[in-house]
């Protein structure tokens, strides 16, 4: 499994740092939705799903967390600890976000608006979808 981490260009001076993200320049898709998670309780795992066609970039803009990625054949754990790094998550990739620091803010840039029909919330259904995709 190839894990793609983007390192975004910080712009700063004595006043502080700024990161600007533009679709098709810094982000490999048109940004259709942005959301973020914060105040995640200790021991909580978020995500636990895959998407049929949605692509995402995850950026832990404050604090840290870990992302477990599973493509149906291989599992990798990727730490997110820097506000200038983004993790690309493709479609048909099971994701679990966990081990959030108390101050963590995880921002997600998504290629499509929210659509419940794009979610695969059953791990068995995900495995079947991956298997069927690999057969073709």
Provide a brief overview of the structure:
The protein is mainly beta. The chain contains one helix and twelve strands. It is globular and about 55 Å long.
Structural key phrases:
mainly beta; 5-stranded antiparallel β-sheet; 1 helix; 10% helix; 44% strand; globular
Estimate the global geometry from the Cα principal axes: globular
Head-to-tail CA distance between termini: 19 Å
Proportion of residues in helical segments: under 10%
- Work out the radius of gyration: 15 Å
User: Could you state the order of secondary-structure elements as H and E?
Assistant: EEEEEEEEEEEEH
- Helix count from the secondary structure assignment: 1
User: If you average the pLDDT, what whole number results?
Assistant: 95
Widest sheet, order of strands:
1-9-6-11-4
Structural class: mainly beta
What's the main sheet like?
Answer: 5 strands, antiparallel
- Tell me the total number of β-strands: 12
- Enumerate the spans where pLDDT stays under 50 for 5 or more consecutive residues: none
Question: Which percent band covers the strand fraction?
Answer: 35-45%
Descriptive overview:
By secondary structure, this protein is mainly β. It contains one helix and twelve strands; from the N terminus they run ββββββββββββα. Strands 1-9-6-11-4 form a five-stranded antiparallel β-sheet, with no helix packed on it. Strands 8-7-10-5-12 form a five-stranded antiparallel β-sheet. It has a two-stranded antiparallel ribbon with strand order 2-3. Strand 2 and strand 3 form a beta hairpin. The longest helix has 13 residues. The mean pLDDT is 95.
């Amino acid at each position: 499994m190839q894990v793609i981490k983007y390192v975004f260009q910080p712009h700063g001076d004595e006043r502080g740092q700024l990161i600007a993200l533009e679709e098709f320049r810094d982000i490999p898709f048109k940004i259709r939705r942005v959301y973020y998670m914060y105040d995640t309780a200790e021991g909580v795992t978020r995500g636990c799903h895959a998407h049929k066609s949605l692509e995402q970039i995850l950026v832990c803009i404050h604090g840290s967390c870990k992302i477990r990625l599973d493509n149906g054949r291989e599992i990798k754990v990727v730490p997110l600890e820097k506000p200038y790094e983004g993790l690309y998550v493709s479609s048909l990739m099971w994701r679990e976000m966990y081990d959030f620091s108390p101050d963590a803010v995880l921002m997600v840039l998504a290629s499509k608006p929210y659509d419940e029909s794009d979610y695969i919330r059953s791990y068995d259904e995900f495995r079947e979808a991956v298997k069927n995709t690999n057969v073709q």
